[in-house]
Amino acid sequence: MAVNRLGALRSIATALRTALRPGSPGLGERFVSFPRLVSATLRGDYHGSTRGRLFMMAAAVLYIVSPIDLVPEAFLSVLGLADDAVVVSWLAAAFVNETESYLRWERTVRGTAHPTGSGGAGYGAGPAPDAGSTSPGGTTVPGHVVR
């Protein structure tokens, strides 16, 4: 049981570290982009996710908010929370990974990010000029250090 909780906490910590690293889109931008991700996936425009993966994410949200539980907290307090923690950690990691891939796709394949994005460093209304960059077009690639 303690191993499940440690794994869940490690998964959440990894998702948060990924979501909050410099150059990564902020959580607000991720939440705003999620409906676009769902729409693009359902239309078939975006192939980085699947309907099954989106269904599993929706099922995880419903499981977390549902009063019906596989392991009820009322009877097995600590064990009852462990299954929820595992689902929450999977959902957090899936959300971060899916939005990370989608925003990268939106930026590179389409050429611009959605105009309502919050514009985290490396993401937003388009590539930002970088005075010291030797990369093509004078832009900084998200996740890369230009020296």
From TrEMBL:
Can you tell me where the transmembrane regions are? Answer: none
Region Disordered, as annotated, extends over 114-147
> Where along the chain is composition biased (Low complexity)?
126-147
Pfam families registered for this protein in UniProt: DUF1232 (PF06803)
Source domain of life is Bacteria
* UniProt-annotated location(s): Endomembrane system
* Topology with respect to the bilayer: Multi-pass membrane protein
Q: Where is the DUF1232 domain?
A: 55-90
Instruction: Give the UniProt keywords, A-Z.
Output: Membrane, Transmembrane, Transmembrane helix
Q: What is the protein named? A: DUF1232 domain-containing protein
Organism field: Pedococcus aerophilus
